[in-house]
Specification:
It is built from four helices and five strands. It has 114 residues and is an alpha+beta fold.
Length: 114
């Protein structure tokens, strides 16, 4: 996925469709890679919604972002081609464990917990 401002509405909708076609309404864990470096690891009950939000945050703020727009600031600093790896994981407990393990191993640029 190319994280950048879409040139028009069709390109933006095409990205939404691309994301939905791959993850739809699944829960899981995901890893953002850019230039062979891990930039972010996250988990979601609905992968489509979360990945769509991160795509939008690369060029605009979204409702629910923190008061300092940290998500928009982070993802806008990492515009360009990103690879997103994801795995369906239904259990919230398992998602938390996997997120912690991947964070220890991959050391992403953005950490959501210590």
């Amino acid at each position: 996925i190319n994280h950048c401002t879409p040139k028009d509405e069709k390109e933006r909708k095409d990205k939404y469709i691309f994301i939905r076609n791959h993850v739809d309404k699944k829960a899981g864990i995901y890893v953002y890679m850019q230039n062979d470096k891990c930039i972010y690891i996250g988990k979601a009950k609905l992968l489509y919604s979360r990945l769509r939000s991160h795509y939008i945050e690369s060029f605009s703020t979204v409702p629910g972002d923190t008061k300092d727009n940290r998500w928009h600031r982070f993802f806008s600093q990492h515009q360009g081609e990103v690879k997103i790896f994801w795995k369906e994981v239904v259990s919230e407990d398992e998602r938390q464990i996997i997120e912690m393990l991947l964070t220890k191993i991959l050391k992403p640029a953005f950490l959501t917990f210590k």
